[in-house]
C-alpha cells in the first residue's frame, strides 16, 4: 500500500496505511487544503498542451472554428468528465485502478469496468514518452535564451536555431534525459512537496510573462489579424479531423481520460466543492491557452510566418519577440524556465499513476519504481526523438491510408490524444452516467444542491457520451 510520505508533504494523513490488497481499501492522504488540490490539478492541466500544443494545432486546423469547437468540448464534455473523475477518486480514495475496483465491488458491477483505470495508466505512460521529448526542447531553450542566442536574430536565424536542435539526435536525447530526470526526481520524493509550493509561485509568474508577451504582440501591429485568426470561425477550414483533434485536445489539456484526476481526487478532503474546483481548473487552463494564442499569432503575422508551422510554432515565434525586446535574453530565459515548470508539474502527473500502482501492487519502493518507469519511458521516447531526424521517414502504420503521413511522434500523439483519451473518457461518462447507481456519486457532487447534481447527470448521461460517440462515428465514416 502506498504510504503517506509517498504522496508528499503537501498532504496529510487521513488514516494509517494498510495492506497491499485492493480488498482493504484505505484512504491514504489528503491535500492540505482546497487550494493545494487546485494547484496540483492546475499544475497537471496547464503544461505544454496549453503553450506548445494548443497554438500549433489551432494553426494546423485553421484557427477560429477549431477554437470554438475546443471551447465547447471543454464546457460540455471536459468539465462534466473532470467532475466524474474527481468524484470517483474521492469516493474510492485510492489509485485509479483500485478506486475503480472498490467502487465496482461496492455497487455490485462488472469488474471489467476497471479497464478504465488500466487504459488510463497506459495512456499516461505513453504520453510521457513523447511529452518529455518536448519538455527537453524547452530545457534546451532556457540555455539558448540565457546565452543570448535570440538577440537580434532574424526569423530565418530563429528557424535555423530550431531546426538545428531537431537535427541533432544527441542533443535531443540529452535534453529528453534531463527532463525525464527532473520528473523522476520529484515523483521519487512524493508528488507535491517542494513542487506544490514552487507551483504556487511559478504558475502566477508564467501568467504574468504571458501577459507581457500579449502586450508585446499588441504592439506588433498585427494583433487584430491574430485575433481574427483565433476567434473568427470559418468552418470550411476545420474538417472532421479538426473536430476530433479539438475533442482530443480538450481531454489532453485537462489531463482527462488518464486516471490522473481520479488519483488527485482521491486526496481531496470532503467538504470541498468538486464542481467549483473543476470549473476553476478548467477556466485557468483555458485562459492560459488563449493567452498563448494571443501572444503567438500576431507574431506569426508580423514576421510573415505560417500559422500551420506545426510543433515548432512556439519555438519559432516567441524567440523573435525576445530577440527584439529590451532585456530579451532575460525575459526569454524566464519564459522558458516557466514553460519547463509548467511541463514538469504535468509530467509528474503522467508518471504518478504507474508508480502508485507499482507501489501498491508489486510492493516496489517508490524511488525504484519511479526510476525504473522513467528509464523505460526515456528509452521508448528515443523513437519519438529520432522521428525528428534519423527516422524522419519512418511511417510505422504507413500501410493504412489514415496514418500514411504520420511519423513515430505524430502517431503516438494521435493514438493517445485523439483515440485513447476520448475513448477512456467516453467509457468514464457511460460508467458514471449509466452503469453506476446514482447514489454512489450523489453525495460527492450534490453539495446539498440537488440541481447541480441533476445538471451534471444530464450532461454526463446525454451530452458528453453522445458528443464523443458522434465525433468518432463521423471520423470513421
Ligand atoms: N494537461 C497537460 C498539458 O496540457 O500539457 C498534459 C497532460 C498531463 C496530459 C497529465 C495528461 C495528464 F495526465
Automatic annotation (TrEMBL):
<comment type="similarity">
    <text>Belongs to the sodium:neurotransmitter symporter (SNF) (TC 2.A.22) family.</text>
</comment>
<dbReference type="InterPro" id="IPR047218">
    <property type="entry name" value="YocR/YhdH-like"/>
</dbReference>
<keyword id="KW-0813">Transport</keyword>
<protein>
    <recommendedName>
        <fullName>Transporter</fullName>
    </recommendedName>
</protein>
<dbReference type="Pfam" id="PF00209">
    <property type="entry name" value="SNF"/>
</dbReference>
<feature type="transmembrane region" description="Helical">
    <location>
        <begin position="411"/>
        <end position="437"/>
    </location>
</feature>
<keyword id="KW-0472">Membrane</keyword>
<dbReference type="InterPro" id="IPR000175">
    <property type="entry name" value="Na/ntran_symport"/>
</dbReference>
<feature type="transmembrane region" description="Helical">
    <location>
        <begin position="110"/>
        <end position="134"/>
    </location>
</feature>
<feature type="region of interest" description="Disordered">
    <location>
        <begin position="1"/>
        <end position="21"/>
    </location>
</feature>
<dbReference type="GO" id="GO:0015293">
    <property type="term" value="F:symporter activity"/>
</dbReference>
<feature type="transmembrane region" description="Helical">
    <location>
        <begin position="321"/>
        <end position="346"/>
    </location>
</feature>
<feature type="transmembrane region" description="Helical">
    <location>
        <begin position="172"/>
        <end position="191"/>
    </location>
</feature>
<feature type="transmembrane region" description="Helical">
    <location>
        <begin position="458"/>
        <end position="476"/>
    </location>
</feature>
<dbReference type="InterPro" id="IPR037272">
    <property type="entry name" value="SNS_sf"/>
</dbReference>
<keyword id="KW-0769">Symport</keyword>
<feature type="transmembrane region" description="Helical">
    <location>
        <begin position="198"/>
        <end position="218"/>
    </location>
</feature>
<dbReference type="GO" id="GO:0016020">
    <property type="term" value="C:membrane"/>
</dbReference>
<feature type="transmembrane region" description="Helical">
    <location>
        <begin position="277"/>
        <end position="301"/>
    </location>
</feature>
<feature type="transmembrane region" description="Helical">
    <location>
        <begin position="64"/>
        <end position="89"/>
    </location>
</feature>
<keyword id="KW-1133">Transmembrane helix</keyword>
<feature type="transmembrane region" description="Helical">
    <location>
        <begin position="367"/>
        <end position="391"/>
    </location>
</feature>
<feature type="transmembrane region" description="Helical">
    <location>
        <begin position="238"/>
        <end position="265"/>
    </location>
</feature>
<feature type="transmembrane region" description="Helical">
    <location>
        <begin position="35"/>
        <end position="52"/>
    </location>
</feature>
<keyword id="KW-0812">Transmembrane</keyword>
Amino acid at each position: 500500500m502506498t504510504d503517506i510520505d509517498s504522496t508528499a508533504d503537501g498532504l496529510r494523513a487521513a488514516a494509517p496505511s494498510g495492506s497491499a490488497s485492493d480488498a482493504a481499501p484505505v484512504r491514504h492522504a489528503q491535500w492540505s487544503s482546497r487550494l493545494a488540490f487546485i494547484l496540483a490539478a492546475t499544475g497537471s492541466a496547464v503544461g505544454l498542451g496549453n503553450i506548445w500544443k494548443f497554438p500549433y494545432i489551432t494553426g494546423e486546423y485553421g484557427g477560429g472554428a477549431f477554437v470554438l469547437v475546443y471551447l465547447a468540448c471543454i464546457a460540455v464534455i471536459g468539465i462534466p468528465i473532470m467532475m466524474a473523475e474527481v468524484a470517483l477518486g474521492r469516493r474510492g480514495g485510492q489509485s485509479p485502478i483500485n478506486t475503480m475496483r472498490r467502487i465496482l465491488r461496492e455497487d455490485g458491477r462488472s469488474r471489467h469496468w476497471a479497464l478504465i483505470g488500466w487504459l488510463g495508466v497506459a495512456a499516461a505512460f505513453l504520453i510521457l514518452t513523447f511529452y518529455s521529448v518536448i519538455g527537453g526542447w524547452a530545457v534546451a531553450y532556457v540555455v539558448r535564451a540565457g546565452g543570448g542566442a535570440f538577440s537580434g536574430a532574424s526569423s530565418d536565424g530563429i528557424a535555423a536555431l530550431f531546426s538545428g536542435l531537431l537535427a541533432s539526435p544527441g542533443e535531443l536525447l540529452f535534453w529528453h534525459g534531463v527532463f525525464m530526470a527532473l520528473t523522476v526526481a520529484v515523483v521519487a520524493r512524493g508528488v507535491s512537496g517542494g513542487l506544490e509550493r514552487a507551483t504556487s509561485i511559478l504558475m502566477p509568474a508564467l501568467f504574468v510573462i504571458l501577459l507581457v508577451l500579449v502586450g508585446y504582440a499588441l504592439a506588433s501591429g498585427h494583433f487584430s489579424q491574430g485575433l481574427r485568426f483565433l476567434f473568427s470561425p470559418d468552418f470550411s477550414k476545420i474538417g472532421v479531423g479538426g473536430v476530433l483533434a479539438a475533442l482530443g485536445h480538450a481531454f489532453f489539456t485537462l489531463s482527462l481520460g488518464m486516471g490522473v484526476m481520479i488519483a488527485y481526487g482521491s486526496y481531496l478532503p470532503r467538504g470541498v466543492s468538486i464542481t467549483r474546483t473543476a470549473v476553476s481548473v478548467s477556466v485557468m487552463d483555458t485562459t492560459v491557452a488563449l493567452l498563448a494564442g494571443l501572444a503567438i499569432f500576431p507574431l506569426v503575422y508580423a514576421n510573415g510566418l505560417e500559422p500551420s508551422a506545426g510543433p515548432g510554432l512556439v519555438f519559432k515565434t516567441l524567440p523573435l519577440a525576445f530577440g527584439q525586446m529590451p532585456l530579451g535574453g532575460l525575459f526569454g530565459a524566464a519564459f522558458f524556465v516557466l514553460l519547463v515548470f509548467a511541463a514538469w508539474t504535468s509530467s509528474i502527473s503522467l508518471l504518478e499513476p504507474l508508480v502508485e500502482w507499482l507501489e501498491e501492487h508489486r510492493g516496489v519502493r517508490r524511488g525504484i519504481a519511479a526510476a525504473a518507469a522513467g528509464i523505460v519511458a526515456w528509452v521508448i521516447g528515443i523513437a519519438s526523438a529520432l522521428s525528428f531526424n534519423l527516422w524522419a521517414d519512418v511511417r510505422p502504420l504507413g500501410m493504412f491510408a489514415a496514418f500514411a503521413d504520420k511519423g513515430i511522434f505524430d502517431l503516438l500523439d494521435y493514438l493517445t490524444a485523439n483515440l485513447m483519451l476520448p475513448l477512456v473518457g467516453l467509457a468514464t461518462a457511460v460508467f458514471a452516467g449509466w452503469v453506476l447507481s446514482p447514489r454512489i456519486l450523489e453525495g460527492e457532487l450534490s453539495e446539498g444542491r440537488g440541481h447541480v447534481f441533476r445538471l451534471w447527470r444530464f450532461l454526463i448521461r446525454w451530452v458528453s457520451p453522445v458528443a464523443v460517440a458522434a465525433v468518432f462515428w463521423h471520423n470513421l465514416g
